[in-house]
Amino acid sequence: MSVRTFPHQAKFRTLIYSLYLSYLSSLHCSFDLRWPWSVCQTLRHMLSSISPKMPGILLPLALMNVVPWKKTSRHSKAAEAMKTCYIASSYASCSVDEIAAAAPAALRWFQLYIHRDRTISERLVRRAEAAGFRALVLTADVPYTGKRRDDIRNHFRFLSAVKLKNFEGVFEGKDCSEYGVPAGSIDPSVTWNDISWLRRVTRLPLIIKGILTKEDAELALSHGVQGIIVSNHGGRQLDGTPASIDALVEIVAAVENKIDVYLDGGIRTGSDVLKALALGAKCVFIGRPAIWGLAYKGEEGLRKVLEILKEEFRLSMALAGCRNVSEIGRHVVQYSKL
User: Fold this and answer.
1) DSSP H helical segments within 161-287, as ranges?
2) Using the 8-state DSSP alphabet, how is residue 114 labeled?
3) Pseudo-torsion of CA 268, 66, 216, 283, nearest 10°?
4) Is residue 128 part of a domain?
5) Side-chain-facing half-sphere of 2: CA atoms under 13 Å
6) How far apart are CA 118 and CA 236, in angstroms?
7) In this structure, which of 149, 193, 305, 323 has its CB flanked by the most CB atoms within 10 Å?
8) pLDDT score of 63
9) Annotation-wise, does 111 bind a ligand?
10) For residue 241, what is the domain's CATH number?
11) How far apart are CA 254 and CA 66, in angstroms?
12) Phi/psi at 264 (5° precision)
């Protein structure tokens, strides 16, 4: 069984499938999300004294985002069980306190959008900090929502039974049928200068998600953030943007190991994890595979997805001649950007 078989076994309503698993106005992003991983080849290095019984590895993998129609706490429980990190969306169906209570020992980060009403964002940050979240992940690539034709064709409206617990009582009396918050709630005027405001609000380490160019990576570094996530938002924002792995190499070179570089987008196998680490990512994040696992069998399905990726990663690492994660480097891959 591989991660790619899970969408065929998952139980999706058409509307939900469209929301989480579709792309943008053309299918370019759908194709480009996976193609670069295929042309990045893994090289084998022989006679490296690889033991069949490899030591335990803390998989450099973390979970992304929410599935509102499944309890978000299942993400954190699975992450806790697998000893991996979980990023909780500010748009989650459980509050930060409920997520923390469900998996108190889990390594949790909190994802944030900056709203026009800054007090909303500030309160969220303070609640996450008080609930024991260890870092703040600012999504920087959604000044506006991309044109998602499947959502338009399916007349998508946010499910009335789903409540975004972190916003209870905040938007009373307003139309929240689009994505659970009023249209235009997110501030499109946010600039790099707002990083200074955010750093005054919290002492948590700050990671910027949505970086795809070396110029933005350099700006993130100059504004004192602790990490960046190379991401094209799963191909759901701007059509024709590069795949995350295509942007990774120049971004890693630009920051010169001064801040952590993570990656999400297109991870479907353990060998994908190996390739990302070989090209300089400190760890990877997954989104759609987590959704597939939850839709298949809840927390058990998600744990199965993580177990498959972990075992594939261990095997790929061993076959590439790497005895531990620290031995993974550019010598493991042959990569040329098309």
Assistant:
1) 194-201, 214-222, 244-255, 270-278
2) -
3) -40
4) yes
5) 9
6) 25
7) 305
8) 43
9) yes
10) 3.20.20.70
11) 31
12) -140, 155
Q: What is the mean pLDDT of each run of 10 residues along the chain (338 residues)?
A: 67 54 50 57 55 37 43 76 87 89 92 94 97 95 73 62 81 77 88 94 96 96 96 78 91 96 91 93 89 84 89 91 90 76
Give SS3 for 26. Answer: coil
Q: For 44-175, list the strands marked E by DSSP.
A: 61-63, 85-88, 107-112, 135-139
Residue given tokens 């306190």 in the structure block: 97
pTM: 0.84
Task: Give me the pLDDT at residue 298, please.
Answer: 83
Q: Is the CB of residue 132 less than 8 Å from the CB of residue 107?
A: no
| Closest among 241, 213, 246 to 336, alpha carbons compared | 246
Q: Which two tokens stand for residue 48?
A: 């490296």
Whether 267 has a binding-site annotation, put simply, is: yes
Helix then strand count (H, E) for the chain reads 12, 10
Structure tokens at 14: 């058409």
Q: Evaluate whether 128 touches 122 at the Cβ level (below 8 Å).
A: no
Is residue 155 domain-resident?
yes
**What span, in angstroms and rounded, lies between the C-alpha atoms of 175 and 86?**
30
Domain total in the chain: 1
Q: Is 184 annotated as a binding residue?
A: no
Residue 104's pLDDT is: 92
264 is in an annotated binding site: yes
Q: Record the tokens describing residue 3, joined without a space.
A: 């991660």
Domain that holds residue 134: 3-44+57-322+329-333
62 in a known ligand binding site: yes
Per-residue tokens: 327: 């031995």
Q: Is residue 310 part of a domain?
A: yes
What tokens appear for 321 in the block?
Answer: 């001649």
Active site residue 75: no
Catalytic residue among 45, 155, 223, 233: 233
Does residue 144 lie in a domain region? yes
Residue 323 · residue 50 · CB < 8 Å:
yes
